[in-house]
């Protein structure tokens, strides 16, 4: 049995870091696949036995990075011996994400370490109670929010570095401005000013820039250099060259014992500033997740001992009875036991009209109770609620790598070593063939090459775009369960749609009621009263149609049904016969022109039948599975995007062709058995097409899994949703149009990011190496190289953030998923 483990990691800065962590995790026994996302700073590991969570954390630490682990110390009462300790440790050890459990009998405390987001305090306390002991209230020892702390640390170090670097740069101005140089010389000899630069630069280099040394040392120790290595080598070269020039100037050739302290200080300061801007931008990429989490209630009113007690949401467990007052958010998922109210479920379904809730109705955590009090029993809490599952879907999509990112990671794995080789060649060429002072030229060009080539922009090119677009998709009701689907969906050329429940509402509705004789409402009232005695889906549709018009149904007597023909009954002093044309013919009731009308209805994929009152034909009735609102518009928009649209259904050819005509589909696969749907998708793929399949039922699951992209209707079955790569939460096909548009926009953004990141390196590495110097006498300063590298990363992040401004091509927020579907028209001929 396989399981997925998500681990937050600190210290990664570029694509090389990603590759290093992935290799370290992949070498652990039992690990099937490990994917690391630079933007989210998370690793997602799929494994089956062999490894423990603790061994995975050790592997990450050995690779030189810091996994994030939370800790709690919980007082426990009721322990009396060693077996009590063992029982609690076993109970806690079974919880998901648990890294370490230690129970101390003497202090009567349990100490636990676990992965953030995997288990709550309430779950831990519940496990202790289930083991037969009582946990006590505790003060959390969890770490402060890591992202906020990192942001504060970065800001502090950037400010310190800037304060110390500015004087160093001012002193360095004396090298290029004669008047300023004379002023400095009148105050102190040049070597004295070099000493001042040394004092100011040292804390910048080794305190503010300590992260580069820690990361760079780990990278080099594992023979896998990355961005930290490049910054460490480049800035250290400038720093130690300057120290040597200050302390032993006679060691250097004439004219080369000069100071580059300003280069070292500016390099560290600018790259730290770039990191801080990256940190801010990364926080904005996960805005959608934060908005979803804000929908969660913070407290719940749990009924205990007959009274409603407000408790933290983490303390709610399945089975608790909860009171939701008017205007409050429903805290967790549950089943209503008492009360009646209307609940705003728009955040789940897109339905603007509140949905009626009463006994036995399901409520969803995060929705808003409008105008009545509800008492319900909690069924799903914490990570099991619908809202939490949506958050997990979005996070999983953000963590997964599309094919283009996997290719980028492979390139990054060889890029940094190649850059170091280029830097060494640059140094050798300038030192051997450069003009005097050759050592200075060789030094400047080598450091510039190291700094200009930092691959952080490459590592951020894809994950930041994926994060923003999946979050945007969640806002518009399109959940990307797999990040790769964003890239693949952009390359689709064929979209195959299931019919029932996808193109259509999924249940019969009364679409036509054409009265031949009598008053419309009166005939419908009599017919519906008879059909109310039947359990046939067509009968249910007629009854719903009558009730939608507010008609009261009279009592029925002498009801009888004849399979294959129809039904008869006495209602309000009238004898009614309802059935197919053969039933009317057998009764000797003439159909006349109504027969032609029935044939026309049948050609429109409707099921016609007749009603006779007291032996005279009274009405022609048609029932059908009506199209969902927006289906025609969605298919037209898909075709406008250059996509071929086909329909795949198990219905008979006549019905399928009729529906296809209504929505404008030319290619139809009809009378396809459930187990043959995947085969049809395979056949389309064999023709060379990239196929997306849209479905909602259990029988659609194989086809959803077989398609290049499976798009599941969110109002369908759980099995279909699990098999899909994309979920349309609102059940509206116009969501497909928006999903395709968003995927194409995301793909263009990713390509643009890569063109910038790689084009920037390809163009500027030669410039940094000094190829322009023989022609125009220009060398790239290491300070400018560091600034350009930071600008490159910020550009990639900013370009990705533009996806937040994506607007849907067409509006799909129509009321199609909550409450009763709209009833077809009822009219008089």
From TrEMBL:
<feature type="transmembrane region" description="Helical">
    <location>
        <begin position="439"/>
        <end position="462"/>
    </location>
</feature>
<keyword id="KW-1003">Cell membrane</keyword>
<dbReference type="GO" id="GO:0055070">
    <property type="term" value="P:copper ion homeostasis"/>
</dbReference>
<dbReference type="InterPro" id="IPR023214">
    <property type="entry name" value="HAD_sf"/>
</dbReference>
<keyword id="KW-0812">Transmembrane</keyword>
<dbReference type="GO" id="GO:0005507">
    <property type="term" value="F:copper ion binding"/>
</dbReference>
<keyword id="KW-0187">Copper transport</keyword>
<feature type="transmembrane region" description="Helical">
    <location>
        <begin position="775"/>
        <end position="797"/>
    </location>
</feature>
<dbReference type="InterPro" id="IPR023299">
    <property type="entry name" value="ATPase_P-typ_cyto_dom_N"/>
</dbReference>
<dbReference type="InterPro" id="IPR036163">
    <property type="entry name" value="HMA_dom_sf"/>
</dbReference>
<dbReference type="InterPro" id="IPR008250">
    <property type="entry name" value="ATPase_P-typ_transduc_dom_A_sf"/>
</dbReference>
<keyword id="KW-0813">Transport</keyword>
<keyword id="KW-0677">Repeat</keyword>
<dbReference type="InterPro" id="IPR006121">
    <property type="entry name" value="HMA_dom"/>
</dbReference>
<dbReference type="InterPro" id="IPR059000">
    <property type="entry name" value="ATPase_P-type_domA"/>
</dbReference>
<feature type="transmembrane region" description="Helical">
    <location>
        <begin position="258"/>
        <end position="277"/>
    </location>
</feature>
<feature type="transmembrane region" description="Helical">
    <location>
        <begin position="411"/>
        <end position="433"/>
    </location>
</feature>
<dbReference type="InterPro" id="IPR023298">
    <property type="entry name" value="ATPase_P-typ_TM_dom_sf"/>
</dbReference>
<keyword id="KW-0067">ATP-binding</keyword>
<protein>
    <recommendedName>
        <fullName>P-type Cu(+) transporter</fullName>
        <ecNumber>7.2.2.8</ecNumber>
    </recommendedName>
</protein>
<dbReference type="GO" id="GO:0005524">
    <property type="term" value="F:ATP binding"/>
</dbReference>
<keyword id="KW-1133">Transmembrane helix</keyword>
<dbReference type="InterPro" id="IPR044492">
    <property type="entry name" value="P_typ_ATPase_HD_dom"/>
</dbReference>
<dbReference type="Pfam" id="PF00122">
    <property type="entry name" value="E1-E2_ATPase"/>
</dbReference>
<dbReference type="InterPro" id="IPR018303">
    <property type="entry name" value="ATPase_P-typ_P_site"/>
</dbReference>
<comment type="similarity">
    <text>Belongs to the cation transport ATPase (P-type) (TC 3.A.3) family. Type IB subfamily.</text>
</comment>
<dbReference type="Pfam" id="PF00702">
    <property type="entry name" value="Hydrolase"/>
</dbReference>
<keyword id="KW-0472">Membrane</keyword>
<feature type="domain" description="HMA">
    <location>
        <begin position="3"/>
        <end position="68"/>
    </location>
</feature>
<dbReference type="InterPro" id="IPR006122">
    <property type="entry name" value="HMA_Cu_ion-bd"/>
</dbReference>
<dbReference type="GO" id="GO:0140581">
    <property type="term" value="F:P-type monovalent copper transporter activity"/>
</dbReference>
<feature type="transmembrane region" description="Helical">
    <location>
        <begin position="230"/>
        <end position="252"/>
    </location>
</feature>
<dbReference type="InterPro" id="IPR017969">
    <property type="entry name" value="Heavy-metal-associated_CS"/>
</dbReference>
<dbReference type="InterPro" id="IPR036412">
    <property type="entry name" value="HAD-like_sf"/>
</dbReference>
<dbReference type="GO" id="GO:0060003">
    <property type="term" value="P:copper ion export"/>
</dbReference>
<feature type="transmembrane region" description="Helical">
    <location>
        <begin position="750"/>
        <end position="769"/>
    </location>
</feature>
<dbReference type="GO" id="GO:0016887">
    <property type="term" value="F:ATP hydrolysis activity"/>
</dbReference>
<feature type="transmembrane region" description="Helical">
    <location>
        <begin position="158"/>
        <end position="180"/>
    </location>
</feature>
<dbReference type="InterPro" id="IPR001757">
    <property type="entry name" value="P_typ_ATPase"/>
</dbReference>
<keyword id="KW-0460">Magnesium</keyword>
<keyword id="KW-0186">Copper</keyword>
<dbReference type="Pfam" id="PF00403">
    <property type="entry name" value="HMA"/>
</dbReference>
């Amino acid at each position: 049995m396989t399981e997925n483990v998500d681990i937050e990691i600190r210290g990664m800065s570029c694509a090389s870091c990603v590759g290093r962590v992935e290799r370290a995790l992949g070498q652990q026994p039992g690990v099937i696949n490990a994917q690391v996302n630079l933007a989210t700073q998370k690793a997602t590991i799929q494994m089956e036995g062999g490894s423990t969570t603790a061994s995975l954390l050790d592997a990450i630490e050995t690779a030189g990075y810091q996994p994030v682990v939370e800790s709690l110390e919980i007082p426990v009462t009721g322990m009396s011996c060693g077996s009590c300790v063992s029982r609690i440790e076993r109970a806690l050890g079974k919880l998901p994400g648990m890294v370490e459990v230690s129970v101390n009998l003497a202090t009567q405390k349990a100490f636990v370490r676990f992965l953030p987001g995997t288990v709550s305090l309430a779950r831990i306390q519940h496990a202790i109670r289930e083991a037969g002991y009582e946990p006590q209230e505790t003060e959390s020892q969890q770490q402060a929010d890591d992202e906020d702390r990192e942001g504060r640390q970065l800001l502090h170090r950037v400010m310190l570095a800037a304060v110390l670097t500015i004087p160093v740069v001012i002193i360095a101005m004396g090298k290029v401005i004669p008047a300023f140089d004379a002023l400095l010389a009148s105050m102190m000899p040049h070597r004295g000013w070099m000493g001042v630069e040394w004092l100011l630069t040292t804390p910048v280099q080794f305190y503010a820039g300590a992260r580069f040394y820690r990361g760079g040392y780990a990278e080099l120790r594992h023979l896998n250099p990355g961005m930290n290595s490049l910054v460490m080598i480049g800035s250290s070269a400038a720093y130690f060259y300057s120290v040597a020039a200050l302390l032993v100037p006679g060691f250097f050739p004439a004219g080369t014992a000069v100071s580059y302290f300003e280069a070292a200080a500016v390099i560290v300061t600018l790259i730290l500033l770039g990191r801080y801007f990256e940190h801010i931008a990364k926080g904005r990429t996960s805005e959608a997740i934060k908005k979803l989490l804000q929908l969660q209630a913070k407290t719940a009113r749990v009924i205990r001992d007959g009274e409603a007690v407000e408790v933290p949401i983490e303390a709610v467990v399945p089975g608790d009875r909860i009171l939701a007052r008017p205007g409050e958010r429903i805290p967790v998922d549950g089943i209503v036991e008492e009360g009646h109210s209307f609940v705003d479920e728009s955040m789940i379904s897109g339905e603007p009209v509140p949905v009626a809730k009463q006994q036995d109705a399901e409520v969803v955590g995060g929705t808003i109770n409008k105008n009545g009090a509800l008492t319900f029993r909690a069924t799903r809490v914490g990570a099991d609620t619908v809202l939490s599952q949506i958050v997990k879907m979005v996070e999983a999509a953000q963590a997964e790598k599309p094919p283009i990112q996997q290719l980028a990671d492979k390139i990054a794995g060889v890029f940094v070593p190649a850059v170091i080789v280029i830097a060494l060649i640059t140094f050798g060429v300038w030192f051997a063939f450069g003009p005097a002072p050759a050592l200075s030229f060789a030094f400047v060009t080598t450091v510039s090459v190291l700094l200009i080539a930092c691959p952080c922009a490459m590592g951020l090119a894809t994950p930041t775009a994926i994060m923003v677009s999946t979050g945007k998709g969640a806002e518009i009701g399109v959940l990307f369960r797999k990040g790769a689907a964003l890239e693949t969906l952009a390359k689709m050329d064929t979209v195959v749609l299931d019919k029932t429940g996808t193109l259509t509402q999924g249940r019969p509705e009364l679409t036509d009621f054409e009265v031949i004789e009598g008053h419309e409402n009166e005939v419908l009232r009599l017919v519906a009263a008879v059909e109310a005695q039947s359990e046939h889906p067509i009968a249910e549709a007629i009854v719903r149609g009558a009730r939608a018009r507010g008609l009261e149904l009279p009592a029925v007597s002498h009801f009888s049904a004849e399979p294959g023909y129809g039904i008869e009954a006495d209602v309000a002093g009238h004898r009614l016969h309802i059935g197919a044309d053969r039933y009317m013919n057998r009764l000797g009731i003439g159909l006349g022109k109504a027969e032609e009308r029935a044939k026309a209805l049948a050609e429109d994929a409707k099921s016609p039948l007749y009603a006779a009152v007291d032996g005279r034909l009274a009405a022609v009735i048609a029932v059908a599975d009506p199209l969902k609102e927006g289906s025609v518009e969605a298919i037209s928009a898909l075709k406008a995007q250059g996509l071929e649209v086909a329909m795949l259904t198990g219905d008979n050819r006549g019905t399928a062709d009729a529906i296809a005509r209504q929505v404008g589909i030319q290619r139809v696969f009809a009378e396809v058995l459930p187990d043959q749907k995947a085969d049809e998708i395979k056949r389309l793929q064999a023709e060379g097409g990239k196929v997306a399949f849209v479905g909602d039922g259990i029988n659609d699951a194989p086809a959803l899994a077989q398609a290049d992209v499976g798009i599941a209707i969110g109002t369908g079955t759980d099995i279909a949703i699990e098999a899909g790569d994309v979920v349309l939460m609102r059940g509206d096909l116009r969501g497909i149009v928006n999903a395709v548009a968003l995927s194409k926009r995301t793909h263009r953004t990713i390509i643009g990011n890569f063109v910038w990141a790689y084009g920037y390196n390809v163009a500027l590495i030669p410039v940094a190496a000094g190829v322009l110097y023989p022609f125009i006498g220009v060398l790239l300063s290491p300070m400018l190289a560091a600034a350009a590298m930071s600008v490159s990363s910020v550009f990639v992040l900013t370009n990705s953030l533009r996806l937040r401004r994506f607007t849907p091509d067409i509006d799909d927020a129509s009321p199609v998923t909550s409450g009763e579907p709209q009833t077809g028209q009822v009219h008089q001929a």
